[in-house]
User: What shape does this take?
Amino acid sequence: MITFFKGLTGPTIAVFLARTMLGLVFLMAGWWKTFTLTPTVHAQQFFVEGFKGHWIPDWLLWGLGTAIPPFELIAGVLLVAGLWTRLTASLTGLLLLLTTYGHALQQPLFDIDGHTFTRLALILFILMVPAETDRLSLDGYRRDKG
Assistant: This one.
């Protein structure tokens, strides 16, 4: 066991921590939005009511509002497990672009310093580190075995 940990580099540990942290943030947000708030209430409160009077059609608001909670939940699980990490991190980055546009549409001087910037920083770090560095993941296990 000690031999295993001696073989880990700083970047390997760093990407594991960043990926797992990002995954937990998305997992818990998705869990709450899916099972406590519910996707329908999420869509109604944050999308349909939040964008009345804007150019976005209701059918698109309902679609996005109900799809985002399970997407965040699944993305969180995949990131924690380290499965399809680069694809999942890229898709969560696109989600952040979408939600940032939405917030900026509602409030042009939207403060990005909260969850959005933290998540973006973790996503960028994960994507900038070579994929082979992430050895403590299902992707790493599959790479080593295959």
User: Anything to note?
Assistant: The CA atoms of residues 18 and 84 lie 15 Å apart. Residues 13-136 form one domain. The first helix runs from residue 2 to 6. DSSP finds seven helices and no strands in the chain.
